[in-house]
Each structure stands twice: as C-alpha cells, then as structure tokens.
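Fig. S4 source data, part A: sequence.
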Amino acid sequence: MYIADVSTEKRLYCGHTGTYYRWERAGRRIYDNNLFSNTTSEVLTLSNVDRNDNGIYRCEYYHNGWQPADFYLVVKDTRLPMIYLPSNQYVAVVGAVVRLKCTFGQTIPKTTAAWWTKFNNGLYMNLSGSDDQKYLGSFQSIQLNLFSVTERDSGEYRCNGQTKNGQNFLATQLMIGNKPQPPATGKPIINVMVGMEVTLSCIPQFAKTNLTSLWWGKKWYDDFPSINYKNKNKYSGGNLSTPNLTIKQVHSSDAADYRCNVANIFGTSYVESKVVIGRAPSVRVYKRVHNPVIGDPVTLDCVFTYADKFCWKRVKNGQEEPVDTARTSGESTQSLTIQSVEQQDDGEYRCYGSNDISTANSAITVLSGHPPVVNISKDCYVLRVGDNVTINVIVKHAPMESTINWRQEGNIIYNNTRQAVGELRNPFLTIRNVELKDAGNYTLFVKNKYGNNSGFTVLKVIYIPLVTTTTTKVEVNKGVDTVLFCSHDSNPTPTHVYWTKNGVNISAHETTKYNGSTIESPSLVIYDTGTSDSGTYVCSVSNKLGFGYSKPLQLVIRDTLSSERKEYSYKTPLIITLSVIVIILFFVGLMVCYKRRQRNISHYENPDVKQGDVHRYSTARNVDEYDLPNQTDDNNTVGTTGSLDDRNEHNETRSFMVPEFLKLLNEKDKYTRQVQLEFKNLSESVNPCHSGSEYHNETTSLMKHNNPASNTTYQNTTLTIKEVCTFIL
C-alpha cells in the first residue's frame, strides 16, 4: 500500500522484472497525460496527487505471459475523514461469506457519517443499511457483510465518511470466482524401467480466471512438497509454460506418487500420477498352429506378462490388417475367438501386448479342415466257413498324415497269413478262408488332425451243425433207462435232430421206447434197455446248409449178476475198497478244501475239439474241474447252446463227477438248478444281421435273438460254476 499527501507527486514501483509493462486503475488502462507519466515502465508517476486518486493500481509485466501485481494508493487529507481499510483487495470463491471492514481515524472536525457504496455500471450506489450509521468518537468502524457471494458481487467497494468540511472515501476491490478445475493427465499409472526417461502429463483445463502458477510435488509421507526444480539434471518442465514434468535417468527412488498443482487467485486444484518401476512385456504362445474343424469356434491364446494393453492383427498378403470384429470376439484381450471358422479364416494372426515401456508380439497360424468321413460298402456280410471276403471302404478327408486301423471286437487287426489290411488310400480288409472265430463286429478307425471317425460292419459266419457226444462207448445193465448224450452248435438255427441205430433211422417220436431227439433236447433216452438195444448209434443235426454228424457211439447191454455172485463179488472186496476210498477221500478232501479256500470261483476251460471229435474230454486241475467239449477253434471259450432263460434259481454248491455233470448239461431243468452261467464285463451292441443284440467282452460273445424267445442262444460263452469246499462220497 502506498500513502500520498494531497497536492504532492507520488511514484508507484511495480517490483517485478519483465520485458514489457502496462498500468491499470480500477480495471481501466492508464496512458501518459497531465496526471500520469511513465505508464509503460516499471515506475508509474502521479503528478499533483488529488484525493480522487485513491484506489487500486495494477502493474502488468510480461514474463512467460502477462503477470499481475496490485497496489493500493491512499491519499491523506486532514480536513476530511481519515479512512483505513485492512486490505485494498478481497478475494473469495463463489458461495463464501465476505466481510468488508473500514475504520475512521480522528479528525478535526469529527466524522459524523459513514456508509458503503459499490461501483456499478459507471455509478457508485449506496448499499442499503450502511448510510444511516452515525459515529461520534474517533476510530469508529463499520463492516459490510456479503453472504453466498456470486461473481456478480465482484467490483470496487468504497467506504465513505463525512465531516462538516466534506466527504472522503477509501476503495477496495472484491474479486469473486472459482478455483481452477483439476488438470487432466494422460495416464494415472506409468510403468518405467530404471535408467529410462519418463514424462508425467499435466493438462490444465479452461478457467475464466487465469492461472497464476503451476508446480509439481512428490509424495513424502502425507504431504506433497515441491520437487527440486533447481536440479536440471533430474527434472525439466513442470511449470505454466511447460506443464508436463520429465524425470531423467529414472532411479528406484523415483517410484512414488506425483501431484500436478494449478492455482489462480481463488484457490488450487491438482491431479495425481503414479510412477511404478516395471519391466518390458513378454509373451508366450503354447499352441502356435490351430487345426479347427470348419464351422466350429476356435480360440487363439497369447499369455502376456507386464502388459496392460492388447490388440490382434491379421496378416494378409504380407500386410497387417484389423481382425473382422463381426465374426470374432476378444480383439482387445489376450484371447481371440473366431466364432465359426471358415476356409477364408486360414492364415497368420498376431497378438500385441504393450505397456509404457515397450511392446511384445507373437504369431499364431490357423489351418481349418474337416474330420475324416468313413463309408463301409455293406452293413453286414454273411459267409460260409472257408469263404474269402473283402470289406471295401471309401474314406474322405484323410491326408497322408492320417492314421487308420481295423479292429475286431476292439482288437487291432494286423496283416497275417489270412488277413490283409489296405493302406490309407484304399483301406480295405480281406479275410481268406473264413473261420468261425472271424464272426463279429469290424470297425475301421480313421484319424486326422481335425478329428476322428469310424465305420462299422458285421461279419456273420454260417456253417453246418457241429454235433458231439460225450463218449464213444456206453455200457449199461439190462433193464435200466439209458441216456445217449448229444449236443450241437449251428448257425443258422438247426431244423431237425435225428438218431440212427446201425444206420437205420430211429422214430423217437412215434414210440414210447424213446424220448428226446429234439432241437431243445437232442440226447436220446432209451427206456428199459434190452439186448436188442445194443448197437452203434449216431446223432445228426440239420440246418438249411446241410447235416452234421457225431462220431459213432457204441451201446453195450450187460446182463445183471445173480444174487449169489453179487454177494460173493461184493461182500469182502467191498469192505476193503470202501475203507481205502474213505481214507483217500479224506486226504483228497483236505487238499480240495485248501485249494478252494484260495479260489472261490472255478472256471471250466475247453480243449481243442474238432468236428466229429465227440468223445474227447480230459480232467483239469482237480477232481471238480473239467474241460468241456467246444464247437469253436477259440481256446478261450466254451460253447453251449439251447434255451438258457429263467436263470434266477438259487445256486446249489456241490461237486460233480464227470458223467453226472455231462448229463446235467443236457437236462435243462436240473442244469438251471445246479449250474450258473456268468457273463462278466459285457457291453451291448445292436447286430443289424438279425433282430436282436450282441453282448461281448474280450473273450465272450453273447448273441440273443428277440424273436422267437424260445430260441435264445448264447454262443462262445465262458462257463463259470460257483462252488464251495465239499467231499465227493
């Protein structure tokens, strides 16, 4: 504040260094005239000061833009009221409360009135409520209160006083406005490597009131002290002319929060940025070539580290171009998905990941195609034993790198003396000299890089019946009933069973002498045998392919012994024999119990039985296990035939001698009470060659006809008899 007496000369000094200067009074530009001189220099001269020269003077100097400096000039006149103001300028933000106060000094004559006026539209208007105050003592004061000020309240306010000699006033300037809006920043978090240079952006926003200053601070505990601008080797910029701050040669200690502050006469605003010491991004691709099926979606994955921005490009004709966003998703992520692959989508795709430090990228190739198509020429092949067959196949979409293999019931078929497998371009399967074991399901598996597929067909082998008997000679006593055992295996279904004696057909159904000789019960029952029944018997079975015959079976009839010979023959030897048998059976029983304790389930395995070898059987590992005749060449299966329905009866646990067991095999009712067939790990598949299903595992094939139910047939079935430890007496 400057003080000058009336009718004197007064000089006002700007006090700031600048290239250019200009002066204002009450918001109006001052030019050289009879009252003012040196209006474009650092010092303004007032000639012959008058009391009307009271007020605010502004010096504007140019230094990186025009900068203001305000001064207040007080002109003293002892004849008029002496007025004092605490400040020649008040600054407040919109909505604040402003209190303007002035004090009157002691004068002669005394001040008798005081009031406030505001300069508005070129006129000074009295403010209501301030002109009726009277002051009788010295140094009295008045105060003007303004509530919830707005920008319209800005302007020059005068505190007026009056003595009997006249009036005097002192003016102050009130400026109402807003503090600047917070500046913007390009990025709130910036990653940088040690040793690099980083620039923190600060973008001041538009403000009605000019900014007076801009500076940067670095966080230290809870405060943001100003950075050391004098360190030119570390910092540059960060001021009104260059708001962005550049940090050179970044050190780990530079990792911190930074604040860009902007200020005007009404206040300060700021924006914060964070510097993080980071690393350059890297990328890994786990699958560089994708082979999707046309029409399916495919997702391309790039795994980035230290990257925060991602994008995908496609390469066409050596040039990068944006991916088709209408058919893809994830273009700005680490994974790009093509929704429905088409041939036109094949090619190279590039993923990019970046941060503030650098950018990493990698390439992925898409090659689409089709899975293989397999068409076998026929769904079913029906063959006779000894025939040759070739299964022809058409395979599509199987390039050279594709693989094929033929399988029968899950087992891979390799080239051998009877079977030949074609190559990929012609993947046929030829079977020469077809055998019974060749019957079953055949599948061709084809696999390429787009998927796999298979074709399925059934090979059915038909043959004349295989007929077997249990022995080649039977001796029985005269007058007893005799059973000549016969069993058969046939595909197709057998039509008739015949027995001949000495080459002559037996009419088993036309006399009460015989029973059996049917498909269901092929064994021949002879009642009340006599000497005339002796002879050579043959069992024959027919189907639509022809007849099958058993080996001849000789029946010998013995006369019964007289009672005296019986008594003589059996009395003494019988006692000795029974004693020996009891002792032997005791030790045998102990051995059997021990072995059966180790194994709860015994399996019956077959020897190799050929057509016509009807009398052959052999003893297995102990007295309770027997090899049963089989009608196939597969050493791992036992052939049984006939209706084996209604298997829900309780298992009896006992042992069997050979003749008794073989007899049970051909007597269904007793068989079902004594023996249980078990089928382990079976899976079902529909056989198109007939109405029915096939159940199979690695060693078992179970064929079931749905119509008629009475002809249900189980083929090549592993036979298991559950036993407990028993003695044979």
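Fig. S4 source data, part B ends here. The mean pLDDT is 79.
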